[in-house]
Amino acid sequence: MSSLIGRLALVTGGGSGIGQATCRILAREGASIIVADRASKNVQKTLQSIQSDTTQNHLGLEMDVAKATSVEDALKNTLEKYAKPPSIIVNCAGITRDNFLLKLSEEDFDEVINVNLKGTFLVTKIFTNSIVQNGINNASIINIGSIVGDYGNLGQTNYSASKAGVELLTRTASKELGNLGIRVNVILPGMIRTPMIDAVPPKVQEKFKELIPMKRFGNAEEIAEVIAFLASDKSSYMNGATIKVTGGF
Ligand SMILES: NC(=O)c1ccc[n+]([C@@H]2O[C@H](COP(=O)([O-])OP(=O)(O)OC[C@H]3O[C@@H](n4cnc5c(N)ncnc54)[C@H](O)[C@@H]3O)[C@@H](O)[C@H]2O)c1
Description:
Elements: E1 8-12, H1 17-28, E2 32-37, H2 40-49, E3 59-62, H3 68-82, E4 88-91, H4 106-133, E5 139-144, H5 148-151, H6 157-177, E6 182-189, E7 192-193, H7 195-198, H8 202-211, E8 218-219, H9 220-231, E9 242-245
Parallel strand pairs: 1-2, 1-4, 2-3, 4-5, 5-6, 6-9, 7-8
Bound molecules: nicotinamide-adenine-dinucleotide.
């Protein structure tokens, strides 16, 4: 039995990788999906890949999570179409700008923090205010951190700091929003085969694989299935949780 029938879900970064797989799997579970991404072409590709029945009604939006005005516009478009905000929010948009600390530019530091951490803050704040105003008291926010936010990683001071921030933003938000019926949880993926990882040099990829007990990278669906669980009432008492999905890394 599909677990998300009648629910509306916003997926940021829905144009690629984990976000795209999440759109497909939440739609399979019966949700209507708002696919939001900075890359509008990819939004269309994701919309085309979603299988759904006539009770579902999807929307594609070009949105930059790092810009408050863009997120506010996305909320406006959502309310115009559905007359309600989503009760599922998946903060999946993310970028890397890797370099060793001694060479990392201020611009690359700022950009990663702005998209990964500030973007998660802006989307959560702006959409959750609407959830509260609309009296929705069963909502789930799923943030995507990273295992490197716990352990650090060479060449990723900016990225690992942004993801550590996402984890603690999640835990604090869960304390503030739990009494409103809004659950907030974070997933820490390990190495997942997506365009983001394809940019990592093959030699480095092999080194990482050695460190994973399951000796393979995950695929985007293996994260999306956990997201679907957190979105659904099957996880109704989970709030403020951190779930590592890493193949044991
Ligand atoms: N792939 C991995 O191994 C891995 C591991 C840990 C965490 N993550 C996290 O998972 C999430 C998804 O990553 P992925 O691997 O699917 O990467 P991806 O590059 O395939 O997808 C990221 C998507 O985010 C979008 N995006 C980037 N900046 C944006 C912005 N400002 N506003 C809106 N959309 C924006 C991109 O256009 C892209 O469609 C990211 O937050 C990433 O940090 C990935």
